[in-house]
Amino acid sequence: MKTNRLDSVEMIWIARYDYGEGWRIKMHSHSDFFQIYVVTSGSFLCIYNNDAIELNDGSFLIIPPDTSHGVPKIQKGKTKILDIKFNINDYFIKQEMTALGGRNDVNDLPLRERMEEIREYGKEKPFLYKKIANAILEYLLLLIIKEKSSLSKSPGTEERNKTKDHVFSDKNSALVNGVSKYIKENYRDNISLDELQDVFGYSKNYICQKFKQEKTTTIKQYINKLKIERAKELIALDYVDLKSIANDLGFCNIHYFNRVFKEYTGFSPAFFREKELKEYRKQVFFSDDYIITPFDYYKESKEK
Questions:
Q1: Would you call 65 helix, strand, or coil by DSSP?
Q2: Which residues fall within 8 angstroms of residue 1, CB to CB, at 6 or more apart?
Q3: SS3 category, 53
């Protein structure tokens, strides 16, 4: 006899929002699902239980069930977020994510990229889209749990008992992590392999080899991906012209920028901007049972 096994996590709903001056979300809570805010541009203040938490570009906030939260009236500026709601059926993941409620960390986790991927599956609804979206979300939650767990561990017996292979591996990982960090801080300046060789004291070939082994991508591809991800964020701001974006990100001219952008996204920057601006405040549903109620979305209002 066949039985239907619940996925460890189940997507309910995802949306992009842009909050400008005068917007607010009244204090409310949800009794039966988790929620995560990911800030993709700007910043805003969120009230979580009785704590005021500042959310900035790149940070995220985990909101477990039965947690009071809201956003006071935004006084100035504009903020863009990805808002996701989901159920957790796995006991371990639910316990860990509940314990991490209220965290607003900025880190290297691919939250935005994978949440956008989930949103695309929900929009297009291909075969098995719910299963795929749930699998991507479970992967993201486990990454969050792993990241927080590794930060809380202190060196002990495991550290002292490392073999030479482990030490060698750690040395390579430290090099790749250092290169990654340096690139993220300087990718606008068109970093060369000669520059990386001078900074880190290893040959260009060695750095490229270890980077490709660990990241499964070349340094040039990694730099271009960072540039294009930043370009996508800037393009979504309709007041920044495309030529300025290209110059800011170190592209030699607008034509080269257009070519690289289309290579990575499949769209021209102009078409991507038009598409992005149409997508805000559009909700994508994964659950047929979920209904927006006055206690969440419609509690949000724009005061004049």
A1: coil
A2: none
A3: strand
Amino acid at 130: K
pTM for the full predicted model: 0.66
Domain 162-266: CATH superfamily, name plus number: Homeodomain-like (1.10.10.60)
Which one is the CATH code of 9-153+284-302: 2.60.120.10, 3.40.50.410, 3.40.50.1380, 1.10.8.80? 2.60.120.10
Structure token pair of residue 106: 């900025």
Residues of the chain with CATH 2.60.120.10: 9-153+284-302
Residues counted in the chain: 304
Q: Which residue has the tokens 């591809």?
A: 221
What's the token pair of residue 141? 């939650």
Per-residue pLDDT of the chain (304 residues; tens, 9 = 90+): 344 568 999 999 998 888 888 888 888 888 889 999 999 888 889 999 989 999 988 889 999 999 999 999 888 888 889 999 999 999 999 999 999 998 776 566 788 889 999 999 999 999 999 999 999 999 999 999 988 776 555 444 444 444 444 444 567 788 998 999 999 889 988 899 999 999 999 999 999 999 999 888 999 999 999 999 888 878 877 668 899 999 999 998 999 999 999 999 899 999 988 877 776 667 888 987 776 554 444 334 444 3
Tell me how far apart the alpha carbons of residues 284 and 117 are, in angstroms, rounded to a whole number. 12
Specify the DSSP element, H or E, that contains 48.
strand 43-48
| 59: nearest Cα among 75, 79, 74 | 79
